[in-house]
Amino acid sequence: DTAVSQTPKYLVTQMGNDKSIKCEQNLGHDTMYWYKQDSKKFLKIMFSYNNKELIINETVPNRFSPKSPDKAHLNLHINSLELGDSAVYFCASSQDWSSNEQFFGPGTRLTVL
Amino acid sequence: AQSVSQHNHHVILSEAASLELGCNYSYGGTVNLFWYVQYPGQHLQLLLKYFSGDPLVKGIKGFEAEFIKSKFSFNLRKPSVQWSDTAEYFCAVRGNYQLIWGAGTKLIIKP
Asked: Closest residue of A to B32, CA-based?
């Protein structure tokens, strides 16, 4: 059984488009995260939700909007895509906001042309 | 400011060589430390973690790490690497609400 799943795995799109990435976890965790991994493999936290409430909102362009319809899902919507948005986006979850261990999804490789 | 520093960005070793990847952190609170591994084309997986107790922590696939509080370090070691250990290795420290990540070390094992 997949613990943290993301769709799509690959996403190729044109500049200016709007796209969404979905994330679901079946671990019963309360907290979910979105990370961006750039071409140099550097991991940067973008957002975190705990029980559907936003608890981390790092300096990210407001073209990026997370949405958590329930605690098992955290989706990422990106408006007006730019070349610099090309990266691998990882979703992760943890038992709760104070929990130490995070479980990662397989990643979504976004390429903006 | 909280930070994690991984000394080597790239490490190339031959099979059977011994490995040590450096990790130093800067964080004032109670320390929880992690090493994650990312195999080519895959997601991050937890290798090992330190919360408290014995500072020598054993993880999966023969990896271990030693927490040295006086040096603010949590170096990853493996006595004899294999070609399948080729991957990116990330050190992280638990901060407020989130993990603080190092920049990663790309390990390449030559067969």
From this structure: A100
